[in-house]
Amino acid sequence: MPLFLAMIAVVVALPMAAAALALAGFVGAASVSALAAALLLTMFGFGLHTTRRGKFLVWAEILDSLRLRGDERALDGGCGRGAVLTMVAERLPRGRAVGIDIWSKRDQSGNSAEAAEHNLAAEGVRERCELLTGEMRSMPFPDASFDLIVSSLGTKPGPPK
Ligand SMILES: C[S@@+](CC[C@H](N)C(=O)[O-])C[C@H]1O[C@@H](n2cnc3c(N)ncnc32)[C@H](O)[C@@H]1O
Question: What backbone torsions phi and psi does residue 117 show, to the nearest 5 degrees?
């Protein structure tokens, strides 16, 4: 969240700096500031689209392409607040969707089992989901426990946290 706020501050400050520089007669510097502002704004727009809409469109396409029967058992590694877990569970009316996470608030703002639980309930899939607190690099499941495993930005290299 602080990074997000810092980005907004820069996106707002750069056009103001460009205007001030132009008024002061520094046309070259003003152009550079304006260009940087436009680039940042574009990146910001792409980021916003990806997290708010694009990610869901891509996951819908992936999950639909699997032609699930609807009775599978699925695992979402690093489910966070449940965005993808919900979409999986929606496609498993007779199945089970398990989400495992360490609930890192650095990786996702407002991250917690309670937030995931709230979102699953709001989407009407809570009863077919299970949430586990745990490290996905040492998962407590026997082999062949799942028909499908998904993970959206679920982990990064490095030692278990
Ligand atoms: C960027 S968030 C993505 C959350 C969710 N998959 C989504 O797409 O909205 C990454 C998630 O992975 C979890 N995570 C990171 N490393 C993990 C690990 N080693 N084991 C379990 N969960 C992990 C974080 O707690 C966080 O919820």
Answer: -60, -45
